[in-house]
Design brief:
about 150 residues; mainly alpha; Ferritin; 5 helices
Length: about 150
């Protein structure tokens, strides 16, 4: 497995864990809890799809530079740390951290866009459609987080 796919899978898995933890907290309202659960479920699905497609996506490894991989890994670590400490934080502090982690959704979207472009160039239409679905989910997650935080 290439470094980029490993980093993306790790990011999706870390975000799934974080949003599952957020969903379980009792002090969030139904809208926030539903948004957190949606993001968690989608992130788990994305990680599984990446696992299934990793051999195919390894062909595109050169598309993702080391800086993006490092940022992906850093955001994964931040998501895990936040997940572990979240029960002791105020809602305001959680939202502050989530604003910082929104970069994770944006970064994932940028990476998926690179893969989509290359898969389209190779006329791999099934891969294009799967990755477009994931990228659209990432856009939705960004919008959901913005709506919950406001």
């Amino acid at each position: 497995m290439g470094k980029a796919i490993f980093a993306l899978r790790k990011l999706e898995s870390s975000l799934a864990g974080l949003y599952s933890t957020l969903f379980k907290l009792s002090y969030f309202g139904i809208n926030a809890k539903t948004a957190f659960q949606k993001i968690a479920m989608d992130s788990m699905e994305h990680e599984e799809l990446l696992r299934l497609l990793e051999n195919k996506l390894d062909e595109y490894e050169v598309l993702v530079d080391d800086e993006m991989i490092t940022l992906c890994n850093s955001l994964s670590e931040e998501a895990v740390k936040l997940s572990e400490s979240i029960k002791n934080m105020s809602v305001e502090a959680i939202f502050e951290k989530l604003r910082e982690l929104e970069k994770g959704e944006e970064l994932a979207y940028q990476i998926y866009e690179k893969y989509i472009k290359e898969a389209a160039n190779k006329k791999d239409n099934v891969l294009v459609l799967i990755l477009k679905g994931i990228a659209e989910d990432e856009e939705l997650h960004d919008k959901l987080l913005s709506a919950v935080i406001k």
